[in-house]
Every structure is written in C-alpha cells, then in structure tokens.
Amino acid sequence: MLVLPETTFASFPSSFPLNKSSIADIQPSTALDTSSSNSQQLAPISVASTIVKMLEDLGVEYAFGVSGGAIAPIWYTLQHSAIKLRHFRHEAGAAFAATEAYFASDRPVVVFTTTGPGITNALTGLLAARWEDAKVIFISASTSAPKRGRWALQETSNYTMPSAGIFTSEPMFHYATTLESSEELPEVYRRLAKGLAKPNGFVAHLSIPTNIQTNLVETSLTSVNLSFTPPTASEEVILECAKLLSEGPFAIWVGFGARLAAKEIRQLAERMGAGVMCSPRAKGIFPEDHPQFVGVTGFAGHDSVLKYMQESRPLRTLVLGTRLGEFTSFWNPAMIPSRGFLHVDIDPEVPGTAYPSAETLAIQSEVRIFLKALLKRLPKRHRSKIQSLTRPERSAINPNQDSLVRPEVLMNLMQRVIVEGSDAIVMAEGGNSFAWAINLLRFTKPGRFRVSTGFGAMGHFVTSVVGAALTHQGKAVAIVGDGAMLMNNEVSTAVSYQIPAVWIVLNDGRYNMCHQGSQMQGYKDMDVDIPQADFVMLARSMGADGIRVERESDIQAALELAMVSTRPFVVDIVIDPSRLAPIGTRISSLISQGAKN
Length: 597
Description:
Layout: H1 20-24, E1 30-33, H2 47-57, E2 62-65, H3 72-79, E3 84-87, H4 91-105, E4 109-113, H5 117-132, E5 135-142, E6 175-178, H6 185-197, E7 202-209, H7 210-213, E8 225-228, H8 235-245, E9 250-254, H9 262-272, E10 275-278, E11 293-296, H10 303-311, E12 316-320, H11 326-329, E13 341-345, E14 360-364, H12 367-377, H13 407-419, E15 425-428, H14 432-440, E16 449-451, H15 460-472, E17 476-481, H16 482-487, H17 491-497, E18 501-507, H18 512-520, H19 535-541, E19 545-549, H20 555-564, E20 569-574, H21 584-592
Parallel strand pairs: 2-3, 2-4, 4-5, 5-7, 6-7, 9-10, 9-12, 10-11, 12-13, 13-14, 15-16, 15-17, 17-18, 18-20, 19-20
Antiparallel strand pairs: 1-8
Helix pairs in contact: 2-3, 4-5, 4-15, 8-12, 9-12, 13-20
GO cellular component, one term: acetolactate synthase complex
InterPro entries: DHS-like_NAD/FAD-binding_dom, THDP-binding, Thiamin_PyroP_enz_cen_dom, Thiamin_PyroP_enz_TPP-bd_dom, TPP_enz, TPP_enzyme_TPP-bd
Organism: Nostoc minutum NIES-26
C-alpha cells in the first residue's frame, strides 16, 4: 500500500511550491523530506485517488480540462477532492489557461484530458507552457494494455500515436511517462516533486491507462530525500562582475526571468546610474515611468533604446533572465556594447546563444541571488550623477467624435481606466493586439502584464484570461483580435464559474497583422479578410455581458462598465484597420531572412 504522508512538505513552505514570496527567502540548499517516519497506515485506495492525493501534496489547487470516458476515474476523483476542477470547452484552452493560472498564482496547475484527440488538442497549449516556463502537470488517459492494437475507440498506444515527444521526456515535456503499474508511483512522485521544486519551468505528462486508474495501490512509499541547490555564482565571479561594472557606464537589460528581482534591479540601477531596458515580456519589472527606463526592446519596442545605445554608449550590458531571442533583440548588432555582455541566467545554455560573436561573460545563477551578492560588492554610491537618459516618447491623441476607433486612442484610455485605475492583470494576444499593447501601455509593477513573444500561439490569451482571472481572484483583461476571438475562446467557461474575465476585441474584420505585414513584405492582395462578427451578441448568447463601441467618444464609458461588471464581459471595438501597428522590426527581420516578394 502506498501511503502519502500528511506532512510531506510542511517543513519547507518557503521553497515548495516556489512562489514570489518564497524566492525572496530561498536558501542555497532546500530538502524535500518524504521519509516513511511521517507516514501512517491507511486502507488501500485506487491509483486515481492516490494520484489526486499526490497532486494535493504537491501544491495543486486547480485542475482544468475536458472530460471523457477513458479519464473518468481520475476526473471523478479530482471533482470530489480539495482540488478545484474547472471544465473547459477545449483542451488547448484548458492548457493555455493553466499556463496563465500558474503565473497569476505561482502554484502548479493540472490539465486533464481523455485519450486520442483530447491529448493532441492540448499539445499546442502545453508547448506554450513549456516555452513560457510555467509549471503544469498534464494527466491524460491511454488505452488499457489488453485493448491496444485492436482499434479501440480513440486508441492511444504505440500502435496509433507517436510515442517520442508526447509520452517521453523532451523536447515538449521535462518529464513524461506512462504509468503501467502502481509500483511506479513512488518514482513518479519523486520526479514530479523534484521538477516542481526547481525555480524554472516544469511541464510534465503522466499518461495513465484506463484500467490502471482503478487498480488498488499495493506499494509502500519508500524513503526519499531530495535536495535542490539553486545555481549561484561563486564569490570569484561576483567580484569579477563588480569590477567590470565599475569600470564605466553600463546598461541593464531585463527579461521575464528576472521578475522576482524587481527590488534588487532598481537598487542596482539607482546606485550605479545605469540605463534600464526590458524585453516585451518583462514590462513592469522595472517601472516604465522611472527616469532611468530607456524603453522596451525588440518587437513593438521603442526607438529610444537604439538612440540610448548610440548616444550614451554603455561599456557593457548586464543581461538578466532573457534569452535575447528574436522578439527581444532581433539580433540587432547595434545592441552589442563595446565590451560585450555579462549575461545572468539560470539556464547555462542561454548566455552567448543570441549573439555568439559578442564577448560574453556567462553567469549561471538565479537572478535575485546574483544581484543580492553583487550589491554587496559594489560601491554604496555611484561616483557621478545619473546622466540624462533617452526616454520613450509619449504622445496623447484626443478622441474623435466621428472616426472609427484608432488603436492609439484605445490604448491611451486603457492606460487610464485599466492599468492605472485597477489592479487587473492585462494580457495581449498575438497579432497587432500585442504590438499596440507592448508599444503604448506602461506598467510600473511586475506581474501586471503578460504576453507570449516566444511560441506566440493565437488563442493563448482569449482562453488563458479565464485561468488568470480565476487564480488572481480579480479582474484579468485580454486585448485580442477578432481572428483570435473566433478561433478559440472560453467565454462560456467564464460564465459557468462566474469568472470576471474581460475581453477587449480589436474588431477590424481581418487578420490585420498578416495584412499589414504582407503589404510591407511586397505581397499584395493576400486573403486575410474575416466576416465582421458581432461579439456582443455572441457573448450574450453564452450568458456573458458586453458592449459594442464604434466611436472613440464611447471608449472610456465602455471600459469603465467592463471593469465594474461582476460578469464575464466583452468589449467589441470596431477598429480603424488602416492604422499601421508598430510591427516594422518584425517585418524587417522576416525580410532579412528571405521572406519578401
């Protein structure tokens, strides 16, 4: 009989599961004690019940998914456990929602599906979770062994589905296995606990044959003592970094991986007079209204960044928690300072990859631990006054009574009503939606803005806004295009559980990023039009509320109505499609790669 001790993780709440407060207190070594001395004898229980108990002990509070007969034992047990089960309309939506629920709560989230298409439907959202460094446990059903190879309905086995990559570890999953016996449960438990204890992302897949789910557990949980030491730079490396950064002016390039080090980044910047720039995903980690903030880099970024690099000429750049991938840097050589990079990342494979020819001092460390050590080695005050730094330009556009809604006007009013007037999480869908949001919205605190610029799947935020609002326990607002909203939304799920999600739909009757981008690439007359939908009617047909906006003078009242509503709410805004979104750097990158006519 497998017994899960009630106090498995009680002795280390500051490190498991990892959250914003726990990272602040993380110690060089953290132990997970699952010794049998804490266990008690219980009556035999099913594999399904044992797995759900494991998930509870691992800190899971929510499970999102779509039901099915093959997963019924797990599904039923989840529904009658302390874990809050939420039934979604599509498996990809459940996976996207789990990703953003994790970032809103810092707790691992379960996604469950049935066999066959249930699994394949979820894969896009799960791959997004992997790219975003979320912590998600995917539990799926597979065909019972005696039925494999016999064309079972939605058969899930090596006879019908590829095993590599779906049911095995890497590249999609950090850990994946098919549970063929209850005797494997102690090892599964150990692997999940180990993965979740690490500070970076962890996406796991546990496939459980239907007949195994109802088997009784007859294995004891063996004594396991796991330890995890967050990577930290040596004293010698810290001293070298302090020396190099003291030699002259330097810039700080902030990425999403530095989101738990906002306080230390600000201390470092203000002490040393450094200019600070950030990736699109890192907006708000360093306040965008701070006089030392020079702008957002990469996609939809600010011209002020390149001006700063040219005019202020930092000697080096301290890179914190970003891969410097295409959407963050476009690999622009103008971003390389004369003495190169000091690149800090928890993943040793990241530093030097984006700019392989640039001089790079690679430092493997959790960013906050590194900065705490660095601050102790730097002078208390900088030797000179903070230089005047280039800042992003801000221009106000007054609403017009007669024209279609210009996105710039919408963003200005969203800044006032939503960003500054509430604590809502704001997220922007792939397409022109996230171009406008990245460029024009300004955040002063971490955790307020979410965007996916790596995997960048359409449908990510029209669905995941539900998960974010649920675990945030307050408003979450998604800025989305009409194409994404038609593709895969979860308005009905929000209605089912009365989740206060808000969708702001940029309704221009086309895939406008594709339209504008293809024009810039030299391709004319591309098929990008969409029959213009009435999203308010659609929302109300599902039990949500909404309002349609066709004039700029009506925007503010509509946004205010959405923010006070206690129901899921859709703001359907008829956008002027002729306004060119700030996507030029992306198109230039595509043209440089040969995508031109």
